[in-house]
Design goal:
By secondary structure, the protein is α/β, with parallel strands linked by helices. It is 15% helix and 28% strand.
Amino acid sequence: MTVEESTYVATLPLVLAELEVARVERVSPSFVRIELAGDELAEFGTPGPVFDQRIKLIFPNAAGTLPSFAAMDDSWWTTWIEIPEDERGSMRTYTVRDVVGEGTDTRLVVDIVVHEAHEDDPLDGAGNRWALQAQAGQRLVVLAPRKGHEFGGIEWSPGNATRLLLVGDETAVPAIRGILRDLPSDARGAAFLEVPVDADVLDDVAAPAGVSVTWLPRNGGARGEDLHAAVLAHLTGTAPAEPIAVDEEEVDPDLWETPVYSSSGEQVVEATAVPTDDSPFAGLYAWIAGESKVVTGLRRKLVKDLGLDRGQVAFMGYWREGVSMRS
Ligand SMILES: Cc1cc2nc3c(=O)[nH]c(=O)nc-3n(C[C@H](O)[C@H](O)[C@H](O)COP(=O)(O)OP(=O)(O)OC[C@H]3O[C@@H](n4cnc5c(N)ncnc54)[C@H](O)[C@@H]3O)c2cc1C
């Protein structure tokens, strides 16, 4: 199939295409790795390194049908969102784990976090459900950056930081891995990755020599507890005596507080601003993503209690327990 014959919308400033699942691998209890292929990926491109590039995937509706974007123009979003919810398929956000191959052989690799579904499982979303049954030959719609066009979706922006902190749960493992892969070789800092169980510790997460990588499997423990303790011990030298308590009402499922954007309407800056004075957090840039309540707890502790400047840290709620992140 040529690009012209496909469902690819060539006139849009993004890759909006139906791609084929070329490969599926259950790499660990909680990660399903998929490789997406299609001639349209010849057009995929980011302005520089991929870092934590996010993309959107559209999973088929309950009847197994994907929406077609073939005849859509600039108003594709409005046209799609106006299709009844049970027909239009489900859009979710994921990270480009890797880009392999070139030209029309380019493949996008995505790691989807899964948990086994049970009948009436309230935690069973469209992405999880699809990934658990994924097979080569199936198709998904992808929204991704197109060469030479502004797409956004890379939050990694350390400015003039001299020490880096990366913190995330399993949904942020692909992003943290991508950032570590693309860092300059003289980068310094620490990464903390929380995953469900020991077997989810992936063996191909490589970091520059000056960046330590600490895996924190929960193995049945409370979400975020060890992560909070490890991050605070790293920054202050002391682990908290008690877990950080966060009220449910305090949590914004769409929490997104970066130096340049605030989901709660806080004052932002034009670009990451890392202090170079002799304050405790001088030189530090932090990137923190995961379940919104866990991220909210860290944000409160770091910004409100310890005085970390919001201009030197990105706090991102990648998902929220009990909430479907549907578009
Ligand atoms: C920028 C960005 C990048 C992301 N990158 C990735 C990525 O590379 N890989 C990845 O797997 N996810 C990633 N996510 C998170 C992913 O979008 C969410 O987990 C999303 O909710 C999954 O959709 P779903 O259809 O499975 O569940 P939804 O329909 O959104 O939710 C249904 C239920 O499932 C629960 N749920 C959702 N995610 C999880 C989870 N991880 N563990 C347990 N329960 C869950 C919800 O709390 C809810 O109760 C990213 C999110 C963002 C914002």
